[in-house]
Amino acid sequence: MPEEGIMNTKSDTLNTKKNLELGRALFHFIFYPVAVALIIYASASKWEMAVVLAIANVGIYAFEKFRRAGHAAYHDKKKRYSRFARCYEWFKHATHGIIRPHEITGTSAMVPYVLGLDLVFCWVMVSSLLPAPFHFALLDALFIMTVVASGDPFARIFAIMRKNAGKQNHSLPWNPGKSWEGFIAFCVMAGFWMVITDLSAMGKGMLVLTPILISAQVLAIIAGAVTESVAGEKDNFWISLFSLLAYQTTLIVGWAFG
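Structure for Phosphatidate cytidylyltransferase, as requested:
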């Protein structure tokens, strides 16, 4: 068996890669249905969502601290923390496919993901104190979350599926490490789930679609896809930021010229 964090063969690498992307994709995406259920169907308030987000932050912090301390105990040559090490061994199996090997002793991509959600929610709170064109409601935050939660993981899965099937991916001109197939998959899947979000909100009487709102959603998706293609591995915070900027700027411009 390969040592933790090390893959000894090409087959090990490929199998880990397949499992890894699905595990990470599930973590990315699971926040979306929870947010839809709370914001649209349970009509959660800003303060209720603040509590939910605080719990998520504490959970991720505890997860990060536990796995790094557990890793140290697991590899302690003096075996001073054998019970903790056994717990960590179970933990490793339970979280297989979420943490990349090089993240084991460092910060995982979960942290910038949640920080991106924190940023969007902070803007919800701050914008409520600003004039009308800057208002940004929980439903607007859900639109940005839809981009982050669905675009990135599905783009990665689609590109890897093509690669595993022996199909050639076509590199982006501004980043050879990313492909047009992944970029398009990001836009298509984020667009698909954005439509689901819109229909859910419209069904509850929470949303009236306008050309400006549709434009803002489309530009948020494109901004997220472009950011994902250039921002590196821990790109989730930047996807949240630039999708938010594109969305809010479009609404402000639409208000100014409407």
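The mean pLDDT is 85.
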